[in-house]
Automatic annotation (TrEMBL):
The gene is hemL. It comes from the Bacteria. It comes from Dawidia cretensis. GO terms for molecular function: glutamate-1-semialdehyde 2,1-aminomutase activity; pyridoxal phosphate binding; transaminase activity. It is an enzyme of class 5 (isomerase). This is Glutamate-1-semialdehyde 2,1-aminomutase. It is found in: Cytoplasm. InterPro entries: 4pyrrol_synth_GluAld_NH2Trfase, Aminotrans_3, Aminotrans_3_PPA_site, PyrdxlP-dep_Trfase, PyrdxlP-dep_Trfase_major, PyrdxlP-dep_Trfase_small. Transmembrane segments: none annotated. Its EC number is 5.4.3.8. NCBIfam families: hemL (TIGR00713), PRK00062.1 (NF000818). Pathway: Porphyrin-containing compound metabolism; protoporphyrin-IX biosynthesis; 5-aminolevulinate from L-glutamyl-tRNA(Glu): step 2/2. The keyword Transcription does not apply.
Length: 430
């Protein structure tokens, strides 16, 4: 057991002032036990905690650090922007450059509005879809997480699922009534939902590749089926690409699977680690957004100069270095192949889902394709595995219902190190 006395002391202090001592629930480590580690700094593939320990980072701020931590390109861009003032409350050239880049790369986006988080992006996208269609209901998939907007805290994934509150108290019955549910990867169920609510469904929203019940890929024909269904019923199809946008491909999952939604939400990745989000879509729909149209949506810090500078630096770099995508996918595949071999050798009931540089090791022998199968996992086994990895300097996502994200800073040597740690961790599972 390594000494984490500083982290422990800070956590005790934090609990006096912050609910649960953290500003986002999964960070509290409740699903895996023990005290959370307070991080001091990070560089490349590594995190360093307040007690000075080094960890190989497998979550990368839940996705955005595609190039690894404190990449010089991003650091320089933020420093330069800071010297010009961190905020104006007036439009800036960088916001236009960001919008041009998103419109050029994300197939569904003709107009885009910047916001400050993924939550704001999904809330706003749904409001616009409702304004555009004049309908109230939305359909979301069980186990998908779209941030903490009231409409989405129904059978929600991520931390809501981890803490056993996928339906949060505080969401009014009226709001909950307007959110209909369907299992992920089940076209028949969603067709039924649409038929039962004919002419009332404004939008279908989903993570095209789910990250928030762990990584779950869409089955062949699923996204195409949703596209056709939305076309038949004039429903706005929204892909929440907060995790997948610019990660699975420059144009996100919609580029990878060749299915173009009507609207797209983006988040953390386009800020290169700074707080940001965006929603966009067809011009005809986005023209409903104020000040062109009647749907109101605004933000004091939206399009923040530091976030734009960081995001543009990273996205432009990725544009100029497409080999980064090949590298992170190759590293992830190599890790997943190694883990798959280990599971077999150790005789552990586990299965792995991978799409590009996202993956989850699920402690279940079921093939995980939806919320129901995701819930068959052994969370206790995961917690034991997590702690055994942490003790060996590997920082995994502290919940079974999350994806892990590989950065460009991870190389073959580190993959070997992670696999070596994993072999020992699996051996502790008995
Ligand atoms: N949508 C998806 C798919 C996400 O993964 C998340 C966060 O992880 C969100 C929305 C919410 O984003 P934020 O935490 O920035 O509000």
């Amino acid at each position: 057991m390594h000494d984490i006395s500083r982290s422990t002391a800070i956590f005790e202090r934090a609990k006096q002032y912050i609910p649960g001592g953290v500003n986002s629930p999964v960070r509290a480590f409740r699903a895996v036990g023990g005290n959370p580690l307070f991080m001091q700094r990070a560089k490349g593939a590594y995190l360093y905690d307040e007690d000075g320990h080094e960890y190989v980072d497998m979550i990368n701020s839940w996705g955005p650090m595609i190039l690894g931590h404190a990449h010089p390109i991003v650091e320089e861009a933020v420093k330069a922007a800071l010297a010009y003032s961190p905020s104006f409350g007036a439009p800036t050239l960088r916001e236009v450059e960001m919008a041009e880049l998103i419109c050029a790369l994300v197939p569904s986006v003709e107009r885009v509005r910047m916001v400050n988080s993924g939550t704001e992006a999904t809330m706003s996208a749904v409001r616009v879809a409702r304004g555009y269609t004049g309908r109230d209901k939305i359909i979301k998939m069980e186990g998908c997480y779209h941030g903490h907007g009231d409409s989405f805290l129904i059978a929600a994934g991520s931390g809501a699922l981890t803490f056993g509150t996928p339906d949060s108290p505080g969401v009014t019955k009226g709001t909950a009534r307007d959110t209909l549910l369907a299992p992920f990867n089940d076209l028949e169920a969603i067709e039924e939902r649409v038929e039962e609510n004919k002419g009332q469904v404004a939008a279908i929203i989903l993570e095209p590749v789910v990250g928030n019940m762990g990584c779950v890929a869409p089955q062949a024909g699923y996204l195409q089926g949703l596209r056709a269904l939305c076309d038949r019923h004039n429903i706005v199809l929204i892909f929440d690409e907060v995790m997948t946008g610019f990660r699975l491909a420059p144009g996100g999952a919609q580029e990878l699977y060749g299915v173009t939604p009507d609207m797209t939400t983006l988040g953390k990745i386009i800020g290169g680690g700074l707080p940001v989000g965006a929603y966009g879509g067809r011009k005809e729909i986005m023209d409903f957004v104020s000040p062109v149209g009647p749907v109101y949506q605004a933000g004091t810090l939206s399009g923040n100069p530091l976030a734009m500078a960081a995001g543009l630096a990273m996205l432009n770099y990725l544009q100029g270095h497409p080999e980064v995508y090949q590298h992170i996918e190759r590293m992830t595949t190599s890790l997943v192949q190694g883990l798959t071999r280990q599971i077999k050798e150790a005789g552990v009931k586990a299965t792995i889902n991978q799409v590009g540089s996202m993956f989850t090791l699920f402690f279940t022998d079921k093939h995980v394709i939806d919320f129901e199968t995701a819930r068959t996992v052994d969370t206790q086994k995961f917690a034991t595995y997590f702690q055994a990895m942490l003790q060996q300097g590997i920082y995994l996502a502290p919940s079974q219902y999350e994806a892990m994200f590989i950065s460009a800073a991870i190389d073959e040597k580190l993959i070997s190190r992670i696999l070596e740690a994993s072999r020992r961790a699996l051996a502790t599972l008995g």
